[in-house]
């Protein structure tokens, strides 16, 4: 059941009609709870609030699978503006980005050129740039671009996904590069990725432990699972791992009660804040990772705080209702 639900939301994330409708209507489906705003001003308000609580931030100007050079150039310029603002406001913040937003599917050399411009500016301000890992179709190409950039820059890193069979080898391959370790949010073939949640969780824990023991490079431990976090805390204490060599990382709006609590325990903590109008695909993948958020989303979408039915754009509400009906039918048919 969990895999079917996950597949359903991933399919929705790839629906271009719904994605365009989401841009037209603005935040719906409860997305405002998980996306830090549609513009830089609202995102930076969230950054300042979290910094005041001792929490650092990584900002992601949402966008992916761009097919026009003009769109990639626009995305690059937005990222450059965010970097300038990080420097100007002196906030504790770095950048996360996707290479497909910067033209990877258009021309690899063009994408690298965009990345060099971003890294040049970020390096001058000592700001780190994280390349988010996308689906497996882009995996080798992403690492090829990373390898090219690592020849000239030391303020760039990437993400390792524990559901991939090759993740252990790549952890070792990039032992001297700053990494974020995640479970993985895309639908991948059994030929390249584990399908079972328990296997993915166990591999995640193994990767983090290996990384913390064998690498001197910084590590972001990205999970919302309190059981995994507690196991890793015990490992860190037992092994005497330096708290400055890693951080726990969670997504904006998810398990928010844990963000400040972990930071107050003396661990470095970072919140991943996505922002921008291209929020739909990101949000659907978050529901795919944690479908129990659907109940919260449906309530927020259809009812006001005093439980009165409210009007919603049909194209977006339809996705919510479709998802709800899908899950209801699956339960009745079991």
Describe this structure in words.
The protein has 334 residues and is α/β, with parallel strands linked by helices. The chain has 2 domains: 1-28 and 290-334, no CATH class; 36-278, TIM Barrel. The chain has 13 helices and 8 strands. The protein has helices at 2-13, 16-25, 40-51, 69-89, 108-124, 139-150, 167-173, 197-214, 226-239, 256-264, 280-289, 293-302, 314-333; strands at 56-61, 93-97, 129-131, 156-161, 179-182, 219-222, 246-251, 269-275. The protein has an 8-stranded parallel barrel, surrounded by 7 helices. Strand 7 (246-251), helix 10 and strand 8 form a beta-alpha-beta unit. Helix 8 (197-214) runs parallel beside helix 9 (226-239). It is globular and about 50 Å long. The model is unreliable at 313-317 and 324-332 (pLDDT under 50).
Itemize the secondary structure elements and their pairings:
Elements: H1 2-13, H2 16-25, H3 40-51, E1 56-61, H4 69-89, E2 93-97, H5 108-124, E3 129-131, H6 139-150, E4 156-161, H7 167-173, E5 179-182, H8 197-214, E6 219-222, H9 226-239, E7 246-251, H10 256-264, E8 269-275, H11 280-289, H12 293-302, H13 314-333
